[in-house]
Amino acid sequence: MRSLSYDIEFRARARRTQGWGLGLLALAGLMWIWLAVLLFTPYEPEESSRECLSRFTSESLHNSDSSCVQERDWPELLAVLGGSVPFAVVGAILYTNGAVSHRMAEHLAEVTRLNEARS
After folding, report:
1. Distance CA 102, CA 7 (A)
2. How far is it, in rounded angstroms, from Cα 47 to Cα 72?
3. Per the CB 3.0–4.6 Å rule, which of 14, 28, 64, 100 could disulfide with 84?
4. Structure letter (DSSP) for residue 22
5. For 61, phi and psi rounded to 5 degrees?
6. CA end-to-end distance (rounded Å), the chain
7. At what angle do helices 2-40 and 74-118 cross, to 10 degrees?
């Protein structure tokens, strides 16, 4: 019975790790959605009331004296993208680790069951 309780705890820990990985991947996905919103939607600078085109349009890329360019500059957008990378990498590692651990526990249980049935 002791091995059964260990197996149950191992599978629960694997599912928990998988859940943490999925949560971190979801957080990275939310950051990517926020990046898309910042990149593709029109906006208004705080000091003026005129509407600026999205940062993705080529008309406002090279106009450096515009208040639109200073309001939503590339370093802010790249910071959101760069900040999402660690969450995506760690989330993918945790999710994969949990999934493989759970799958290995299932495989070991099936091999054990087949060995017992054979003997």
Report:
1. 10
2. 13
3. 28
4. H
5. -70, -40
6. 20
7. 160
SS3 of residue 52 by DSSP: strand
pTM score of the predicted model: 0.80
Q: Is the dihedral of CA 112, 97, 26, 7 positive or negative?
A: positive
State how far the alpha carbon of 93 is from the alpha carbons of 16, 101, 102, 106, in Å: 13, 12, 14, 20
**Angstrom distance (rounded) from CA 47 to CA 44:** 9
**List of residues 6+ apart from 65 with CB closer than 8 A:** none
- pLDDT tens-place string over residues 22-47: 999 999 999 999 999 988 888 777 77
DSSP string, 67-80: HHHHHS-HHHHHHH
> What percentage of the chain carries pLDDT values higher than 90?
47
Type of residue found at 17? T
Which residues have CB under 8 Å from 7's CB, separation 6+?
Answer: 105, 109
